[in-house]
Amino acid sequence: MRLNVRIGYQHLFRLSKSKAKRVKYFVLLFFYGIEGKYKRYLTRVTLSDKIHTNGMYGGKLVARNKYPEETVKKILDVSEQLFLEKGYDHTTIQDIIDHLGGLTKGVIYHHFKSKEEIFNTILEKRYAIGVTDQIESMKDISGFEKIKKINSMSLRSLEHQKLAFSAKSLITNPRIIGELYAEAFTNIIPYIKSLVEEGISDGSIITDYPQEIAELIVLSTNIWLAPSFYKMNEEDLLRKLSFFKMLYDGVNFPLIDDDYIKDIVTMFRAIQE
């Protein structure tokens, strides 16, 4: 019996939709704000004794591929390396094809509809999944510490930040920026609020305003402090950090400490190189 289904990349890498959707954005947005509305990157396949991936591209039949996961991985690996070497904006689909060792443009478009989708999938698969797994495995730490861990882990992946910051054409896209704001309120803030409430329950957070604290965390770390949205030098960044440290301390939520400031400044310097 054959059953037509849609298999998302999240499923291929054993990550639930809700985890990816919520943690991904909080982790990925700090320095660049490019993700926009969450998309599911889906491949149509037929399940039987073998996986068939026949499809059409430009009116032509795309050759059957018995190992679509391996093909997707190869496309992502090659694309990631090119994005890191040349930058997202200076890498073309043809560049990717030229480094795929015989794979055609039709094969790429069978799995991904655009270069932007390839880029977003790399960010999601490579980085959000690892952070999600780590956060989910932290059973013995408080809600407050989980929030701090998400913050610190999002800053310490230099390769990740450079990759994302290379996509300046996405950073300046008004549609992407608008979708980013909408996504923050739809998915990120509810997730962070759940961690704040967890902290209230375990005693690590004292507040009567979990919703407002969650909004402050997401908007300050992902938007107000993001140099992708505002032109700033290191002095500007330090001034903003000083202000937000005072603000967080004032509501008895010491999220910004000396280690956090050090991590942000280190990352800021690295992505300017």
Automatic annotation (TrEMBL):
Matching Pfam families: TetR_N
Domain called HTH tetR-type: residue spans: 69-130
Entries under SUPFAM superfamilies matching the protein: Homeodomain-like
PANTHER family: ACREF/ENVCD OPERON REPRESSOR-RELATED, ACREF_ENVCD OPERON REPRESSOR-RELATED
DNA-binding positions: 93-112
The organism of origin for this protein: Enterococcus caccae ATCC BAA-1240
Alphabetical UniProt keywords: DNA-binding
Alphabetical list of InterPro entries matching this protein: Homeodomain-like_sf (IPR009057), HTH-type_Tx_Regulator (IPR050624), HTH_TetR (IPR001647)
Name this protein carries in UniProt: HTH tetR-type domain-containing protein
Gene3D superfamilies given in the database record: Tetracycline Repressor, domain 2
GO MF terms, alphabetically ordered: DNA binding
